[in-house]
Amino acid sequence: MHQYLFYIGDFPIRAYGLVLSLSIILATGVGYFLTKADGRGYEKYIVDLGIYCGVAGLLGARLWDVFFFDWDYYGHHLTELLNVWQGGMAIQGGVFLGVLTGVWYCHRHHLDTVHLMDVLAPAIILGQALGRCANLLNGDAFGAPTGSSFGIIYPTTTLAYHTYGDQPLWPAEVWEGQLDVVIFALLLLFRTTNHAKGQCFALYVMLYSLARFGLEFLRGDYTEKVLGLVTSAQATSITAFLIASIFFIGLQLYGKKPKKIRTNPGHKV
User: Fold this and answer.
1) Measured between alpha carbons, how far is 159 from 84 in angstroms, rounded to an integer?
2) What's the 3-state SS for the chain?
3) What is the mean pLDDT of the segment spanning 184-194?
4) How far apart are CA 55 and CA 24, in angstroms?
5) pTM score
6) I need a surface site. Which of 104, 183, 193, 245 has the fewest CB within 10 A?
């Protein structure tokens, strides 16, 4: 594990930033493929949408962490608000602001927002999976001590080592990335069914919320409990799961099945 790949003068090129950038690029590429296969011509918007949502997602992830988890520190160190390499990116905040930005963009360009959210849901979770690879390389979003010889021992330069020393820690971010890949495949399979518009995105929220809720029991970077019961990420997961479940069931009962748009085989889209 190398946090710093190389230096340009005194400026470090970090594995975290490189892989995080790669996650946005690849998620945008998958989104382009999915929208082109969908046949509505939305692929011409995807690169711009990926840039807007990617930047908004990074900003939302950072601000969510700062204000909900680390304000006691950053309230007195405002100049370090954007120092993401210190650790501190909340994926739930990234998804929240990224999706809001996507909704704004779709409204501005008169796109079918809910349909596009369905199409892009697999690309979003794939981006999250690659983002967890960045967390691993940076030594943040780490697990709690396992109490045994099993686990990850992080380099001395990482936040994980500064927190727990050379104790083996649960590979929480690794397992979350792997579960995200499973969710990616499940969403692709669900997209082949005759689902109602909006159900695929609701399913994405449900599945990720379940995965995040369970893995929070293994996390070691944030241990404070809300009302002494669950972590703030678990509370967010419960809320998101319940809301998404209501929408999923309601859409199943009352939602309209989208009409498939088929292109002429001889016509290039």
Assistant:
1) 12
2) CCCEEEEECCEEEEHHHHHHHHHHHHHHHHHHHHHHHHCCCHHHHHHHHHHHHHHHHHHHHHHHHHHHCCHHHHCCCHHHCCCHHHCCCCHHHHHHHHHHHHHHHHHHCCCCHHHHHHHHHHHHHHHHHHHHHHHHHHCCCCECECCCCCCECCCCCCHHHHHHCCCCECCHHHHHHHHHHHHHHHHHHHHCCCCCCCHHHHHHHHHHHHHHHHHHHHECCCCCEECCCEEHHHHHHHHHHHHHHHHHHHHHHHCCCCCCCCCCCCCCC
3) 95
4) 9
5) 0.85
6) 193
CB proximity list for 28: less than 8 A, separation 6 or greater: 46, 47, 49, 50, 51, 54, 123
